[in-house]
Specification:
The chain is α+β, with helices and mostly antiparallel strands and about 170 residues long. It contains 5 helices and 8 strands. It has a single domain, classed as Peptide Methionine Sulfoxide Reductase, Chain A, CATH 3.30.1060.
Length: about 170
């Protein structure tokens, strides 16, 4: 069995419950974790985040780049967000629902910037999606991990049909 190094990207796209469920379906996505990113250097609670702590609800995506490229992941990401919306996705509104692509490996930047540029051209406007290095990431409480699997009727801004587009082969 090969011991491949995984790559990681952090994606803020509104409510992290749906973002996690969405990315979990794709071949090559090995692990996801929801948390709070790029706010003050203090681990917040969900309540803190909902009270404008400054953190973004974010999903950490660990992936095998031999099975899914960063470009593919980012194209999927842009399918389920409104890239022009500021601090709002679906019915969720507030700074914690801002959109962002946060990286920890500068080698990913050219690929990220290429997808970002194409999406900006497609939108015909400057995107509201933050593109910056990850400042920090704090894991969310356990009840938020895989939330929509535990609570299938929970609210999500992502249409349910999008949770079926890339079903992993088990």
């Amino acid at each position: 069995m090969e011991n491949k190094e995984l790559s990681t990207i952090y994606l803020a796209g509104g409510c992290f419950w749906g973002m996690q469920k969405f990315f979990d379906q794709f071949e090559g996505v090995v692990r996801t974790e929801v948390g709070y990113a790029n706010g003050p250097d203090v681990a917040p609670t969900y309540k803190d985040v909902c009270n404008d702590s400054g953190h973004a609800e974010t999903v950490r995506v660990d992936y095998d780049s031999a099975k899914v490229s960063l470009t593919q992941l980012l194209e999927f990401y842009f399918m389920v967000i409104d890239p022009l919306s500021v601090n709002k996705q679906g019915e969720d509104e507030g700074i914690q629902y801002r959109t962002g692509i946060y990286y920890t490996d500068k080698a990913q930047l050219p690929e990220i910037e290429e997808v970002y540029r194409k999406e900006e051209e497609k939108a015909g406007a400057k995107l509201a999606v933050e593109l910056k290095p990850l400042g920090n990431f704090f894991s969310a409480e356990e009840n938020h991990q895989k939330y929509l699997d535990k609570n299938p009727t929970g609210y999500c801004h992502i249409p349910k049909r999008y949770f079926e587009i890339g079903k992993k082969k088990d």
